[in-house]
Amino acid sequence: MRLPRQDWYPRLEPLLGKVEKPSRYLDHEWGAVESQDGPFHVCMIYPDVYDVGQPNLGIAILYQAINRQEGMSCERGFLPWVDMADLMRAEGIPLLSLETSSPVASFDVVGFTLAHEMACTNIVEALDLAGIPLRAEERSEDDPVVFAGGPSVWNSEPVSPMFDAILLGDGEEGLVEMCALVRDLRGRGAARSDILKALARLDGVYVPSLYDVEFGPTTTRWGRAVPKPGSGAPKVVRKRCIPDLSVTDPLPQKIVPYVGLVQDRLAVEVLRGCARGCRFCQAGITYRPVRERPAEQVVEAAEEGLARMGYDEVSLTSLSTTDHSQCAGMLHRLNADLSPQGVRVSIPSQRLDSFGVEMAQEVGGSKKGGLTFAPEAGTQRLRDVINKNVTGDDIDAAARNAFERGWRRMKLYFMMGLPTETDEDIVAIPEVAQRVLDIGREVVGRGRKSGVSVSISVAVFVPKAHTPFQWAPQLELSEVRRRQALLLSSTHDRDIRVSYHDAEVSLVEAVLSKVGRGGFDLILEAWRRGCRFDAWTDQFDFSRWEEAARAVGIDLVEVASAPLALNVEFPWEHTSPGVSKGFLQREWRRAAEGVTTPDCTMTSCTGCGVCPTLEVDNVIWGDRHAR
Amino acid sequence: MPGREQLHRLRVEYGKDGRLAYLGHLEVINTMGRCIRRSGLPFSVGNGFARRIRLQFSQALPVGASSRCEYYDLLLTDRVNEGEALVRLRGATPAGLAPVWCGYVPRELPAIEAWLTRSAWEVSFSRGVDRDALDGALRQLRDRGSLEYMRGEKRKVVDLGQTLVGWDWDEPGVLTLQTRATNQASLRPAVLLSATQGVLGREVPPYSVCRVGLWHEGVDGSLVEGLDTRSG
Q1: pLDDT digits (tens, 9 = 90+) for B1-54
Q2: Cβ of residue B96 closer than 8 Å to a chain A Cβ
Q3: pTM for the full model?
Q4: Most exposed of A244, A299, A382, B216 (fewest Cβ within 10 Å)?
């Protein structure tokens, strides 16, 4: 029996004085939807704490989309931090929604955001705390129907046993259709199995229970998912795609939190998709095609949102905001309108060229904090392999331009363990940093008082599904550590600060990115051994993951670092973002040859296949700035 | 932009109530900044790196404590009628933090945090409390002179002779504490009640805390209301 819908806040309140940040659990924020009458109730859960999940634009979009529907109510849910989760368990309080403090297990539909692989144990934790059976196959007729969607659905196999249905791609329309279908069929008394079959007939919806895992000579040890005979499920589920961003709500973010958030500002999505073609980047493939929101709409939304919500900062978000064809005009107008009110306009990252610096100048004005660029690799050869399309001259010119305009601190992002990487590429990372530092000293002057400094942050490459590098092995743990040591010993200037990601976290992330449905056993075992909040440095415990892997017979390093043949069948090939496997194979070969591929929004079609497959096109409102 | 001398200092009294009692001081500050922006009042913005609203708050309220008398001072570039300012602020503020009164105060008054240092707190116990035993424990603590406690990983010392002005029982189960904040420390009711456990050898019953008074203390010990616009 599903839990009754009732307000548990009186039971929760006595715990608030005993936990860190009680404001995470309060609700009643400005702009929250107070009326939650239903009668059809949906709870959207971000499987992390409130302060991390609340700024998520995806949750905001879906929250508004569902609450706009007649007869549907949508609430938010987040995972309580470990102190509160433990207290709730001790007091017998289940996971609650935020708006009405109702048990999550009392809802008709529960939706999870799959934000990244490292949130997988948090999903288990959330379901367990809610009292919802962990495996979809164990749920009764009356249990909530559990959905998932978000950026990390592209190898959903290891978490798929937990979900009744997974939505691929844009959720604005798809999730509403899914909820309406569940509501209508439940209203007619349909069996859960029939609801799942009907869900599988919706575009973009993957119903894991309708697929068997088969093994063959060209599959990995994780097999491939094929529709069960008679299920009616499609062989390949293609993603949903909103063809025109301008028809969507430009201001879905309406709630003003009390808690200081990770991204505590108004966010306006200025474009979706990126066609630059970096070969390691999953979002660059899975969000295609590029769809810009017209500048006029962005400016109006930003100004209206600021007046309605009271933020003092607006961020123009996307995968590559400075690529927007109307970027300069948009930023200029917003700055002119908002600067007198002390409102700051920000963009999430800078393009590595002079235009990027000009745009940073536009948003930063006379205030100069640090400036961040992402060359990703130290040598031109390796930058060509990853299709970064940035030259050493670009880096030098951008750095000189930035120092001349008043910036003093530069942060450079790199990756380690990229395909074909050698020691020469590692040693070149601090050389790039040194060159940037020398330019700064030349422009600004030497000595500590000049304030010129460069910091480099080096992530470990994780091969991701549906990218040209999905065939690549991850660098073995011992080799990552050797190269990290080499990086440190090759950095000689004290004004260059080096930081690098935890190799063990990256190893677990790589394993979760590569395993198939059988990988759920590993996730479940890791959670049973205490893993949760694995994306939090202070909570991640590699030894528990090692123990869990041993218990289920998985060698983490072997899974992450196994080389794969070009004709291998991946566990995720029954889901498609619309980009053809042939294109990815071609890009993988071109990478090996060091041949770059241009951005189709600045040149001509490069044949990725997304436009004809999904019957969409790039939507560009002006002229894009090629380098 | 008017110069600083042409700005108007609007003092706003507000409460902190219900669930929002669990907001921390920084969260209240951020929330009020957003309320002021939403209100459309002609607020003044500082020239620092972050360009914040020129806004000052009275002494921090502990997390979990509610209040009937919190204050902030807001600098405006144009003088707006007090009634209109109050309506605009109330319309832009969550009910749990709603402003109840506002008025202009002299620009030259000291910073509000340093000026309003005397507090009265109502401690309401949820079930029967041994009043005599608690009185005895409070007296013992006061006679010791100072109170040491841990706040996170930091050891704190409060001079009770300076900070604990007195206490009384207005009605059964409701203890009223009078405290004074000094440059060195301020006394939180929860810290004092927690310390009584050491004396009593048992926990006090569950309770809630509400600040019911906040005043300026004159050199002669007289108390001046936060919204007494005549005082300097």
Answers
A1: 566 678 999 999 999 999 999 999 999 999 999 999 999 999 999 877 667 899
A2: yes
A3: 0.94
A4: A244
Q: How many Å is the Cα radius of gyration of chain B?
A: 19
Residue B26 sits in the same domain as residue B73: yes
Residues of A in contact with B49 (CB under 8 A): 367
Sign of CA dihedral B4, B5, B6, B11: positive
Residue B4's pLDDT is 67
Rounded to the nearest integer, the mean pLDDT of chain B is 91
Is there a contact between A287 and A170 (Cβ–Cβ < 8 Å)?
Answer: no
Is B230 part of any domain? no
3-state percent helix, strand, coil for chain A, nearest multiple of 5: 40, 15, 45
pLDDT (0 to 100) of residue A184: 97
How confident is the model at residue B214, as a pLDDT? 95
Q: Stretch A282-289: mean pLDDT, rounded?
A: 97
For residue B27, tell me if it sits in a domain: yes
Q: Do B37 and A367 touch (CB under 8 A)?
A: no
Check pLDDT > 80 for residue A369: no
Based on the fold, state whether residues B133 and B218 are members of the same structural domain: yes
What pLDDT is attached to residue A627?
Answer: 46
What ipTM, to 2 d.p.? 0.90
Identify the CATH number of the domain in which residue B177 sits.
3.30.70.100
The shortest CB-CB distance from A17 to any of B37, B46, B64 is to B64
**CB distance from B63 to chain A under 8 Å?**
yes
Q: How many domains does chain B have?
A: 2
Q: Do B37 and A341 touch (CB under 8 A)?
A: yes
Interchain pair B27, A16: CB under 8 A: no
Contact assignment for A311 to B27 by CB distance below 8 Å: no
pLDDT digits (tens, 9 = 90+) for A216-228: 999 999 999 999 9
Q: Note whether A575 and A154 are within 8 A (CB).
A: yes
10 Å Cβ neighbour count for A469?
23
Say if residues A363 and A347 touch (Cβ distance below 8 Å). Answer: yes
B23 to A367: CB separation less than 8 angstroms, yes or no: no
CB pair distance less than 8 Å for B22 and A26: yes
Mutation choice for B interface testing from A19, A256, A304, A312 by most B CBs within 10 A: A312
Q: Across the interface, which of A9, A13, A30 has its CB nearest the CB of B94?
A: A30
Half-sphere CA count of A40, side-chain side, radius 13 A: 20
What residues make up the domain containing B14?
4-115
How close A350 gets to chain B, by Cα (Å)? 21
Regarding whether B101 and B174 lie in a shared domain, the answer is no
Helices (H), A310-454: 327-338, 354-364, 380-385, 392-404, 423-444
**Contact check, Cβ <8 Å, B26/A29:** no
Instruction: Reduce the DSSP state of residue B178 to 3 states and report it.
Output: strand
Phi, psi values for residue A315, rounded to 5° = -110, 130
How much is the pLDDT for A365?
63
Contacts of A256 in chain B (CB under 8 A): 31, 34
Residues in chain A: 627
* Rounded distance between C-alpha atoms, residue A237 and residue A174, angstroms: 13
Using a CB–CB cutoff of 8 Å, tell me whether B26 touches chain A.
Answer: yes
CB contact under 8 A, A258 and B31: yes
Question: How far is it, in rounded angstroms, from Cα A549 to Cα B159?
Answer: 56
Given B27, B94, B206, which is nearest A260 (Cβ)? B27
Q: Are residues B26 and B106 in the same domain?
A: yes
Assess if residue B231 is contained within a domain.
no
Select from B80, B115, B150 the last residue of a domain: B115
**Computed over its alpha carbons, how large is the radius of gyration of chain A?**
24
Clarify whether residues B138 and B101 are in a common domain: no
Residues A43 and A104 sit within 8 Å (Cβ to Cβ):
yes
Regarding whether B74 and B168 lie in a shared domain, the answer is no
Single residue among B115, B135, B159 that ends a domain in this structure = B115
Q: Taking CB atoms and an 8 Å cutoff, what residues of chain A touch B61? A: none
Domains of chain A and CATH, by start: 9-238 (3.40.50.280), 368-511 (3.30.750.200)
